[in-house]
Each structure stands twice: as C-alpha cells, then as structure tokens.
Amino acid sequence: MPTVTSKLTIQPASARETIAMPEPQIAAFSVEKAYRKGEHLVPVLHGVDISIRKGEFLSIVGQSGSGKSTLLHLLGLLDSPDVGEVQLEGQRIDDLPARTRDELRNRVFGFVFQFYHLLPELSLMENVLSPLMIRHSIWGYWKRRKEYQERAREMIDRVGLSHRLTHRPSELSGGEMQRAAIARSLVAHPEILLADEPTGNLDARTGREIIDLLAKLNEQERLTIVMVTHDQAIAAEAHRTVKLCEGRIVPLSDAA
Ligand code: ADP
Ligand code: MG
Description:
40% of the residues lie in helices and 24% in strands. By secondary structure, the chain is an alpha/beta fold. The radius of gyration is 20 Å and the shape is globular.
C-alpha cells in the first residue's frame, strides 16, 4: 500500500487537470439570489456554478425569467449573491467593500445591454468617451484628452462607425446604436465584456452583424465575452453555451 500512496503523491491527477483546465478568469460558486417582492422572497438563482476562462466566448441561454440577467449582474459586480461567491482570477470579489467593488467593476468589466443606454444629448464620440470622463477628474481627463480621444476614435473605427462621430443616438439605426454601445464598453480596456441580450432589439441580419463583431473582438483582442441571449442560433456563435432553467444550470438538451 505505501507504494500506491507514494505513486499518487508523485503523479497527482490534478497535474494533468491543471494543464487541461486553466484557472478560470471569472467564476461563480454555488451562488443563490432571491429578490424581495413585498413580504415575499422570490428565489431566482438556486446554487449556480459557472467558470469562464480568459479569452473564452460563452453564451448563457434560457427562457425569459430564468435568471440570466441576474447571473450576469452577479458576475459583473452589479449585484451581490445571497449565498456563494464570485471569484476573479481565483480571488473572491463579491464581498469586497463597495468602493473597491466599484473600482474593480470599472477596471475589469465592460457592459452592453439590450437597449444600448446611450445618452441622447451626447454625440457618438462623447458617448464613447463618457466612461473616461466619468472615471477621471476634469483635470485628469483634460490632461490626457488627446490620448482618450484617439482611443475613442480607434474603438469607433473598430466597430465601423467612423462616419458617424458627431451623430446623436436618435440619428443612428438600432445596429449602429449597439455598435456605439460596444465601442463605449471597450474604451477603457476591459478584460471581460458582459453582454445582456445584445441583439434582442435588432432584426436577424443586424443581430448577426453584431455577433460577428463580438466574435471578431473576442478573437483579435482575446477579449473574454459572456453573452446572455434567449436565441439559440445567436448563442451557437459562441465557443460554449450553458443553459439556465428556473435558476439552475441544466443540460443544453433540456427542452424547458
Ligand atoms: P432573465 O434575464 O433570464 O429573463 P432575470 O434574471 O432578469 O431573468 O429575472 C429572473 C427573475 O427575477 C424574474 O422573475 C424577475 O422578475 C426577477 N427579478 C429580476 N430582477 C429583480 C429585481 N431587481 N427585483 C425583483 N425581482 C427581480
Ligand atoms: Mg434578462
């Protein structure tokens, strides 16, 4: 028996697993979340585990109300789990002080939403610059404005909107607004892009163009992308898909 023990010690199975499965960049472990509705607690997530590697393009599918947005918000520190934890590169982040979480959120994550959330009174260029304006003091922004404007232009170019710099959101199509929102989400060099139904308000062809853009950013910049969608065809463009059903991860083949 001692021989077996020493063999196991010398050649642990975990050595091979480490090579095959690198540490996740962002992960949630046994997260549970409920919302209060009047006197009642409405459970939304029932112990979800999810791990995403750096450079991965993951889609999360599931019916409306299955908890997809809630899970995305927990991963991106927009909300906290009741139970379980969220880790970034192996470190727990959901229990950090609010200010540290805010800083981490701004530095690490870019967000894209179904309804773009562009500011109507700002031009495309100003919308894309807005995260940098908000993050830095007026003086700090002013000192580096040339560099920031260049970065914004580069991002606007990357999403194919260079000819729309001074347009306001109301002068853009749905697809252009989503491209603008993607440029804005990338202007501060996030490591992880969290996209909640980014094609949900677009026709099929425009939606496909947005997914192609995300896939290109994922490939060229090695940007990690976690995308929520209820559209299986859109989801299939990602490297991997997980499915949520009533707050639990279920096999993809489940009909529900
Ligand atoms: P999905 O994105 O899959 O459609 P959500 O995560 O948005 O699902 O919501 C899951 C459930 O949680 C829904 O029943 C929704 O009504 C409820 N819910 C989500 N956010 C809140 C909130 N802030 N307050 C109360 N209930 C919420
Ligand atoms: Mg949702």
